[in-house]
Amino acid sequence: MPEISPDVITESTLHDTDDPAIWVNPKDASKSIIFGTDKNTEGAIYAFDLDGKIIQEKTIKGFKRPNNIDLEYGFKLNDSSKTDVIVFTERERQKIRLFSVPDMKPLDNGGFPVFSDATELDANLPMGVAIYKSPKDNNLYAIVGRKTGPENNYLYQYLIKSDSLGIHSKLVRKFGKFSGKKEIEAIAVDDEAGIIYYSDEMHCIRKYHAEPSDGDKEILCFGGQYFKRDIEGIAIAKYDDKSFLIVSNQQAGTFNIFNLETNTFIKELNLGTLGTDGCEVTTKALGNKYPNGLFVSMNEEKNFFFHDLAKLKLLE
Fold first, then answer.
1. Which residues form a coiled coil (predicted)?
2. I need a surface site. Which of 140, 196, 225, 299 has the fewest CB within 10 A?
3. Span 259-302, pLDDT tens digits
């Protein structure tokens, strides 16, 4: 399969890249920031500019194995002001973390514990995380996966809310099937549709409602036959009239593209990355450098690849 070369390969992290998130600067999109986890006991959240250079003053360190990361805009604080935020898992501390963007200040008083009722070995170690911002009431939820778990209720969903006493996390539901074949790490949410997609790594892509009141019944389990082995990072690319699910085919070194509305397979792409865990996408123009949007993917050589989204030819 011909390789589609990246526009940028970032500077290297110290240890082990895993998952990216894209912050689109609302004042100047050419100054947007790409965040990426460095998954190690002495880990960090790295910040990169659009040239792939590390932004030292936005990079935050001192975390115990930060795994996956996600980003949301306009989280309401108790004083009625708003801030953009990143949420990431800190596996070895069994917590999720919440920081403001772009000033990179902690909002979580050291982190919110997760899976505190787990009794199975490694079932309290958070890995994947995705944010859901409800269009019904603007509530912010973190959907969290873990290293291992039961056949049912593998994922936990937490409401993150600010009040006069601070910012808190509250468990609101447990849901999600698990094949038992490997683990569940990659999670993505379509906020507008209220849908969660997650990778049951050696089995299928699973689809659920994101709104707790819409129920816990699985909508679909699909796509497994198109992967060599592990189904990994998931990114959602939404246009006005078409939308796509981009999923890492890890051992094949490729990405599988699905139609988001029908969940049917479209094509496979080779973007040059090796062993990709996480990926992320924006269809928004990021200045002159990425006028068609940006696709970011983790590469196992301690870096991330940036592709102008037009190179993926999603709309052709």
1. none
2. 225
3. 999 999 999 999 999 999 999 999 999 999 999 999 999 999 99
- Total domains, the chain: 1
Provide the Cα torsion 162, 101, 127, 252; round to 10°: 150
Q: Given the DSSP bridges, would you call strands 33-38 and 43-48 parallel, antiparallel or unpaired?
A: antiparallel
* DSSP-derived pairing of the beta strands 17-23 and 33-38: antiparallel
* Domain-located, residue 2: no
Inter-residue contact 127 to 100 (CB < 8 Å): no
Domain coverage including residue 127: 8-229
Closest CA to 268 of 239, 298, 225: 225
CATH of the domain at 110: 2.120.10.30
pLDDT above 90 for 249: yes
Residue 79's pLDDT band, with cuts at 50, 70 and 90, is confident
Task: Report pTM.
Answer: 0.97
Both tokens assigned to 40: 């190690």
**Calpha distance 256→245 (Å, rounded):** 8
Exposure string (b/e) for 208-220, b if CB count within 10 Å is 16 or more?
bbbbbeeebeeee
Q: What are 216-244's pLDDT values in tens digits?
A: 999 999 999 999 999 999 999 999 999 99
Nearest to 126 by CA among 108, 142, 105, 147: 147
